[in-house]
């Protein structure tokens, strides 16, 4: 019986195989973690975009405020949990260049949506007095 003719794996071969498997596993886990983080960020940005567009549409449907300076518009009701809308900012524009005290019938609306303490999206649009 020849002892040198064993057909099993040596300890070194087994350790190398385990090391290769560990490196591949770490790479896969890092990829999954990155994908999950990107998915969460995408979900926050999509939700913030929907909220901001809803707020702009809500402002555009409200009566044109030509009295208050700056114009004051309400925030939409039922904002999803964790998200806040910074008080919508409306600035009177003066395309006729006849002074800011005159309302030329156009306002620039800026809506900022936050998730927790982080700003996710800022959207700018216009409200026109018709």
Short structural summary:
With 130 residues, this protein is an alpha+beta fold. It has one helix and three strands; from the N terminus they run H-E-E-E. Strand 2 and strand 3 form a beta hairpin.
Please, could you describe this protein's structure?
This protein has one domain (8-128). The protein is 39% helix and 24% strand. It has one helix and three strands; from the N terminus they run αβββ. It has one helix at 11-61, and strands spanning 83-92, 106-115, 118-128. The relative contact order is 0.14. The mean pLDDT is 87.
* Rounded radius of gyration (Å): 29 Å
Distance between the termini: 103 Å
Shape, principal axes of CA atoms: rod-shaped
Number of strands: 3
Share of helix, binned: 25-40%
Characterize the quaternary organization of these chains: single chain
Q: Strand order, main sheet: write it out.
A: 1-2-3
Poorly predicted runs are none
Q: Which structural class is indicated by helix and strand composition? A: alpha+beta
- Tally the helices: what do you get? 1
Q: What kind of sheet is the major sheet? A: 3 strands, antiparallel
Whole-number tally of structural domains: 1
Provide mean pLDDT, rounded. 87
Q: What portion of residues belong to β-strands?
A: 15-25%
């Amino acid at each position: 019986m020849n002892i040198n003719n064993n057909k099993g794996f040596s300890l070194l071969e087994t350790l190398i195989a385990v090391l290769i498997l560990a490196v591949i596993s770490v790479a896969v886990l890092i990829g999954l973690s990155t994908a999950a983080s990107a998915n969460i960020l995408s979900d926050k940005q999509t939700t913030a975009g929907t909220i901001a567009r809803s707020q702009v549409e809500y402002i555009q449907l409200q009566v044109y405020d030509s009295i208050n300076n700056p114009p004051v518009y309400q925030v939409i009701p039922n904002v999803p949990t964790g998200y806040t809308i910074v008080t919508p900012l409306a600035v009177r524009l003066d395309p006729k260049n006849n002074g800011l005290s005159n309302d030329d019938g156009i306002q620039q609306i800026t809506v900022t949506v936050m998730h927790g303490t982080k700003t996710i999206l800022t959207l700018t649009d216009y409200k026109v007095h018709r």
